[in-house]
Design goal:
The complex is a heterodimer of chains A (286) and B (278).
Chain A (H helix, E strand, L loop, with lengths): L7 H6 L19 E12 L2 E12 L3 E5 L6 H5 L12 E9 L2 E2 L7 H7 E4 L10 H11 L5 H14 L3 H4 L12 H13 L5 E5 L7 H14 L4 E5 L3 H7 L2 E7 L5 E8 H6 L4 H7 L5
Parallel strand pairs in A: 3-8, 3-9, 6-7, 7-8
Antiparallel strand pairs in A: 1-2, 1-4, 4-5, 9-10
Helix pairs in contact in A: 4-5, 4-7, 5-7, 7-8
Chain B lengths: L1 H37 L5 H5 L2 E2 L4 E2 L2 H32 L4 H15 L2 H15 L6 H25 L3 H9 L4 H30 L2 H4 L19 H10 L4 H30 L4
Antiparallel strand pairs in B: 1-2
């Protein structure tokens, strides 16, 4: 399938390239930083997966992490909600801050961090329960029991992902009867129900057909008005269509993933500074 | 070459089909034989009267009650321990010496002949703990016997729950416990229930382990400390001592019907109440 990279989305959402701020960060001075990593390294046992990654992720924008397979994109994404903690033997060095919270401090409550930083996965993965229960499961675990309040949350969340009108009469139906696109929307709604500030999308369109992909992308762009969004994608056109910022990662001989280039998406794609970035985005490898 | 492989395919299909058919025939033949011999004996009196004359006449009411109570005790005790151990093995530990020991013990326990459980139950529950021949002793012995089955089937069911459900639950800010209760358990419940149904079947049909521990009294049990005779034991004694082969067949037929009913009802309950989201 050929995708027109100069789609409406692209022209709508990429701002004209302003010069980088003096600090070396490619963000505009008026953009506020939501997440900041400082010399972040991550090891699985003796294997180093990420090395010396420092960058600032802007608030209420979409940041795309791109790069060849195995470069540590997903690992980096999972640093932000500490999902890597589930893997035995993981060690993180350096500093990652969400607003003013240094998220790898010992005192940080991982459970409340994950409420602030939601995640949407690669494949649509609703729980094998009703549509209602899928969305209510998060709020219920936070202790919300009031039926009316749960109803409101479900309604609000489904409205955000444009599913409410289609599903409002079928909330008791099994989520597994929905189409893949609807399932992925439901999963996004499930994440929104926890009222996160940041949403991580881990190749969340890769299991969908092109039409559904487009619709989810439109939803992401829409959500970026209120939420800070970070996506991992293999799809260059997608990164170009939806993201404001792009982070290109690659591994070197030691197999550790590094951040090669971090730039405004339209600048990176029109005028990459690094030769490796250029080779990758023009499809010469990866 | 091509015709050869096609012929081979046909032969393989035929072989596999005939093994399945053979198993089906054996199953149907045994059940049909016992039901044909036994069903004529089953009537209202047979179901509601206690055995008289050592079982030569009267019914089997007390053995039905005994069977159900012994099985209930076994399941009520084994279920929490079995499922708990399975969750411990599957969710709370890494593979280590301790988990290997637990798994090895469970597998060894599963391979022990039931008469050995009977003897252990007799020595430990009946004599040492002084519980006597009783429903409690029988139930406890059966609980130990079915524990490995429940652990194994539950652990497999838990491990077969896609990893991503756990990840999603954690990503939504769920704690470990919430993840297990809300995300893993509902998806594993069907497999866990299958293990329990299997165990119920084994408990209902067990003779060797209960004959030494629950006794062979024909009276209607009045408490968990009453001795009782389960249907399987009753059937065994009737046939073995030549008391009444007719009543033995009647009891056997009833046993088959009971196990069938337990399976059907348990599946219905699971479909109705637990697995409704599917």
């Amino acid at each position: 399938m050929k995708i027109n990279i100069n789609s409406k989305l692209m022209t709508q959402d990429s701002k004209p390239g302003l010069p980088s701020s003096p600090s070396g960060s490619p963000l505009d001075s008026r953009q506020s930083v939501k997440i900041k990593t400082d010399r972040l390294s991550l090891h699985y046992g003796s294997f180093q997966a990420l090395k010396d990654i420092s960058f600032d992720i802007p608030k209420c924008a979409i940041t795309a992490i791109i790069g060849p397979s195995g470069c540590g994109k997903s690992t980096l994404l999972r640093v932000f909600n500490r999902m890597n903690d589930l893997i035995p033997g993981v060690r993180v060095e350096g500093k990652v801050t969400l607003d003013d919270l240094s998220i790898y401090e010992k005192t940080v409550d991982v459970v409340s961090l994950r409420k602030r930083v939601g995640m949407v996965f690669q494949k649509p993965n609703p729980f094998p329960m009703s549509i209602f229960d899928n969305i209510a499961i998060g709020p219920k675990s936070y202790g919300i029991k009031d039926k009316q309040e749960l109803n409101n949350i479900v309604r609000w969340s489904l409205t955000q992902v444009a599913l409410w009108n289609d599903l409002k009469d079928n909330l008791k139906k099994s989520s597994l009867d929905l189409s893949p696109e609807q399932q992925q929307r439901l999963c996004i709604a499930r994440t929104l129900a926890g009222e996160p500030e940041v949403i991580l999308f881990d190749e969340s369109c890769s299991a969908l057909d092109p039409e559904a992909t487009m619709k989810i992308e439109e939803l992401m762009v829409d959500l970026a008005k209120k939420y800070t969004i970070i996506i991992v994608t293999h799809n260059m056109e997608q990164a170009l269509r939806v993201s404001d910022m792009a982070a290109f990662m690659m591994i070197e001989e030691d197999k550790a993933g590094r951040l090669v280039e971090y730039e405004k998406t339209n600048i990176m794609f029109s005028n990459p500074k690094d030769k490796r970035t250029e080779d990758y985005i023009t499809g010469r490898f990866g | 070459m091509k015709t050869n492989s096609r012929a081979g395919e046909k032969i393989a299909k035929l072989l596999i089909w005939s093994t399945a058919l053979f198993v089906l025939v054996v199953l149907v033949a045994i059940s049909a034989y016992i039901l044909i011999k036994g069903l004529p004996r089953i009537n209202w009196h047979f179901l509601t009267e206690i055995p008289r004359n050592m079982g030569r006449s009267g019914g089997v009411a007390s053995t039905i009650v005994g069977t159900l109570l012994v099985t209930a005790v076994a399941i009520i005790i084994a279920m929490p321990f079995g499922i708990g151990t399975a969750f411990y093995l599957a969710e709370y530990t890494k593979e280590s010496m301790i988990t290997r020991i637990i798994r090895f013990s469970a597998e060894s326990l599963a391979g022990i002949p039931s008469i050995v459980y009977g003897l252990f139950g007799f020595i430990f529950f009946v004599i040492y703990l002084n519980l006597g021949w009783s429903i409690l002793s029988g139930g406890l012995t059966l609980a130990i016997m079915i524990l490995p089955t429940i652990i194994r089937t539950s652990e497999e069911a838990i491990l077969s729950v896609p990893k991503v459900y756990r990840e999603v639950s954690f990503s939504l800010g769920g704690t470990k416990w919430q993840t297990i209760i809300k995300a893993v358990f509902p998806s594993a419940i069907r497999g866990i229930t299958n293990g329990i149904i299997l165990s119920v079947g084994r408990s209902v049909a067990e003779t060797a382990a209960v004959i030494y521990t629950a006794g062979s009294a024909l009276r209607m049990p009045v408490s968990l400390f009453s001795p009782t005779r389960t249907m399987a034991v009753h059937f065994y004694i009737l046939a073995r001592e030549g008391i009444s082969l007719e009543n033995a067949y009647g009891t056997a037929a009833l046993l088959i019907i009971l196990i069938f009913l337990i399976n059907v009802v348990a599946n219905m309950l699971v479909n109705r109440f637990i697995a409704k989201g599917r």
